[in-house]
Amino acid sequence: MAFAYCQRLMAREVSMPDFILSRDIPFVLVASFLAAGTAWVMNGQILPAMGNRGIICLTPLAEEAAKTLWAVLLGAPILWTHAGFGVAEALVELRRRGARGVMAGWTALAAHSLFGFITVRLYSERGLFPALLLAYLTHAAWNLAVIYYSGRARTRLTGHK
């Protein structure tokens, strides 16, 4: 069923809903979990090898591709898969930082939801590749701003130490 929906979606015979239906929840949870796991593995390779450059250039690509492609493959709503990924990232922030991670967690949820909204809007108008490209560029710009304004740009320009 999910595969048939995915084929119809890719052919633009149906559009992504702006709301979530109860039957979509399992697909969103699985897609979000798989996207978070995929990103976790990929980012685990990127950060030690490239440091901030990887966070700016490759991490957004890995995350946006993982979120969107898992959603499309499973027939899950893209927007809600992105939001679910944001929840997973928020939980990681809380686990790592405790109370200091609350703001970072909320920001992760908001940012990934925004990237999802951008992806859905462009996907419905232009297709998968342009949607992924714009979401990637937006995410990369976001990561650049976060690194620059957090002061991390001066401390870790290359590899993660």
From TrEMBL:
Residues annotated as transmembrane: 21-42, 69-92, 104-123, 129-151
Keywords, in A-Z order: Membrane, Transmembrane, Transmembrane helix
Highest taxon of source: Bacteria
Name under which the protein is recorded: CAAX protease self-immunity
Organism: Desulforamulus putei DSM 12395
